[in-house]
Amino acid sequence: MFHALTRNPQSPAAQELQRLGADIAHGDFEDPTSLRTALHGVRSVFAVTTPFGTDTDAETRHGIALIDAARDVEHIVFTSASNADRGTGIPHFDSKQRIEEHLVTAGPRWTVLGPAAFIDDKFGDWTLNGLREGTFHLPLPSDRELHLVAVRDIADVAALALEQPDRFAGRRLDLAGETLTPAAMAEALTAAIGHPIRHHCPPLDVVARYSADLAAMFGYFTEVGTDIDLPRLHAELPEITWHRYADFVRGLAWPELLQAQPA
Fold it and tell me: How would you classify the pairing of strands 178-180 and 146-149?
């Protein structure tokens, strides 16, 4: 049996998890008592935090509250971000660094996973609007390599860590399946969609109008980047089938995604 923590047990997502066999536990990150009650009898915890929808201070506060409530569990697997332990200056990375530091000093046995840039979340309305016009917008130079990882691969590594705590305890692993340049992503999109796609790098000051946080992230990726040793990582985790960007975009339902939206 696995438990799923939710603020709203009646939400569609919670109901779907229950249908899949989860025991739904109510908890609120602003209410430590509810977290301790929800975690009673739990052996291991998988945790992921986000500032989006709140702010980075709330993310840190929520992560620390969960760790403190989970002091009696055997193992916490926390999903952070690649390079978040290095003082990047990226707000939603630095908030995770503060959670990591608390976990290492105050938590039970722990594992930290640091995913690179997600493959899966790059196809929101802004991207799709550009693709309809033949342009792939990504705020990186066309020849700058970016580490990428599929959400499914993060989940598979997390499950492995929960199943084999002795193997992963006290370790921090940055995760990526491959590196690609935006130019190579545009080539993969061209092949998947069936018409030419070119990459465009929006200026960071334009990105900052939407999100200073994301502008800081892409600035960091441009100037510093991540340095995951892919051969070593993949050799160490032979159980993981790392998904590739080209395979992912080839599997998307492009006719439906690119259908013009009603005015």
Answer: antiparallel
Q: What kind and span of H or E run contains 112? A: strand 109-115
> Helical H runs in 171-211?
182-193, 204-210
For the chain, list the domains and their CATH numbers. Answer: 43-257 (3.40.50.720)
Write out the two tokens for 105. Answer: 């000093």
128-182: per-residue pLDDT in tens?
999 999 999 999 999 999 999 999 999 999 999 999 999 999 999 999 999 999 9
Kindly report the number of other CB atoms within 10 A of residue 48's CB atom. Answer: 14
Strand partners, 172: 112
Please tell me the pTM assigned to this model: 0.93
Backbone angles phi, psi at 30, to 5 degrees: -90, 0
Contact 44, 50 (CB under 8 A): no
Tokens 């013009």, located at residue: 260
- Say how far apart CA 187 and CA 176 lie, in whole Å: 20
Find out whether 228 and 176 touch, Cβ atoms under 8 Å: yes
What span, in angstroms and rounded, lies between the C-alpha atoms of 101 and 106? 8
Look at the chain and count its residues: 263
Tell me how far apart the alpha carbons of residues 128 and 259 are, in angstroms, rounded to a whole number: 9
Residues contacting 81, CB < 8 A, separation 6+? 92, 93, 96, 114, 115
pLDDT tens for residues 25-84? 898 999 999 999 999 999 999 999 999 889 999 999 999 999 999 999 999 999 999 999
Using one digit for the tens of pLDDT, what is the confidence trace for 89-130? 999 999 999 999 999 998 789 999 999 999 998 788 889 999
Of 192, 161, 155, 178, nearest in space to 233 by CA: 178
